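Re-run requested by the PI after the first attempt was lost when the workstation crashed. Everything re-entered from the original request form. Ligand of interest: flavin-adenine dinucleotide.
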Amino acid sequence: MGQSAEFDAIVVGAGPAGATAAYHLAKRGFNVLLVERGRGAGSKQVFGGRIYAEPLREVFDDLDKAPIHRWVRRERFTILDGDRELTLDFRAGASTSFTAYLTQFTQWIAQKAVDAGAVLADEVRVDGLWLDGGRVRGIVAGPDRVAARVVIVAEGVNRLLLERAGFVHRASPRELALGVKEVIKLDKKTIEERFGLEEGEGLAWVLLGEVTDFIPGGAFVYTNRDTLSVGLVVHLGGAYQLLRDQVHVLAERLRTHPRLSRFFEGGDIMEYSAHMTIEDSVGYMPEHFAYDGMVIVGDAAGLLLNTGLTIRGVDYAAYSGYLAAKGVERALSEGDASAEALRRHYEVPLRESFIYRDLMRHRGASYAMKNPRMFREYPRVALDTLEEIYTLGRETPLPHEALARALSRNRVGFAEFALRMLKVVMSL
Ligand SMILES: Cc1cc2nc3c(=O)[nH]c(=O)nc-3n(C[C@H](O)[C@H](O)[C@H](O)COP(=O)(O)OP(=O)(O)OC[C@H]3O[C@@H](n4cnc5c(N)ncnc54)[C@H](O)[C@@H]3O)c2cc1C
């Protein structure tokens, strides 16, 4: 078994979290190895398509040079059930998020890490954490052990290394969701005409109801420069009991849905991918974000917020990588990579950051995902209420009468509806 010289830090996984941590440590003069099992950084990533910019401005002073496709100004939310459709269309005064290909965005960060002096070892799978009496000493990859003063684990949601080493619990389906995505090629002008966008402007569209067969989850459409990212996410807890078809069949139905197909018509499917994502972040979090000789960042640390209307994973991942780099720098300069020192310099700032605060404030969002009625009966209550209000015969119902009839048709009690909606509004 080979053993090489010690690195200051080894980062496992060149996603946005790992690449950012490697970049900031290399920039500060540390000797960093960034290990990625895929060919090149970013090759294994799947995501919907929108990144929030504000936290990243602190992390990258040249963010405007990143491979940004469109700045999102238009937000759309739709409930679909057969012929019926309820859509909210909002155009923001300013944009705070952009669409991008995660692969390109991650490559951009990883290139900065390499330019700053980090060594990128791609097509290398880390098989295990090198443990010595509970302390992480480095990594094991094939026949090799590579030592580091600190290992930064950025392996993403499928955190097999952490699970095998006993640092985290085995994931439960209640904590995870499955996402599938297609990339559809259309020319730039067609995208802008079909979605009512100004030049360079982007749209983020969330859809509920029939698009996931009323299973907890939702579908999404993001406009890139000259492609669309179209897909859906189903909560594994719900899918396990309720899914009647394979998820790729749902994706096909989404693209060919009579109310939606005109948006995708004539487009070529360039790519199909599937990936897990986190649904219950707080449940998925490890007990600590730092241990002796190791810190955990990004999805592997459960740092993803999905409110149902917005999803934040990439900015959280990159920002946690940045906080980890700052914490590791301080610990290494003090010559102390113990759990205590790493917790003081990384875990405490992370718990005090907007990421952790928001994840705790929104922890009730996963409550909605655990209740299938939120995705079956409640969207129908909304559609039935509007149908009562707009599809008039002789009588014109008062709004509360329309709601009462819609509730009764869907066998939903008023008190149940009011309380659940209040809980959702308070937690999203
Ligand atoms: C369908 C879907 C839609 C999403 N939409 C959005 C969105 O619109 N906006 C948003 O902000 N977020 C979105 N996300 C979430 C976002 O993709 C993640 O939060 C983000 O990618 C997490 O970054 P990460 O660096 O922690 O992990 P990852 O991006 O998963 O990167 C982990 C890396 O580690 C590598 N790796 C893993 N194990 C090993 C090993 N043993 N050895 C070597 N390398 C290893 C992997 O190959 C991978 O490159 C979405 C996710 C999905 C699945």
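Saved to the shared folder this time. The domain at 2-59+101-171+281-362 is CATH 3.50.50.60 (FAD/NAD(P)-binding domain).
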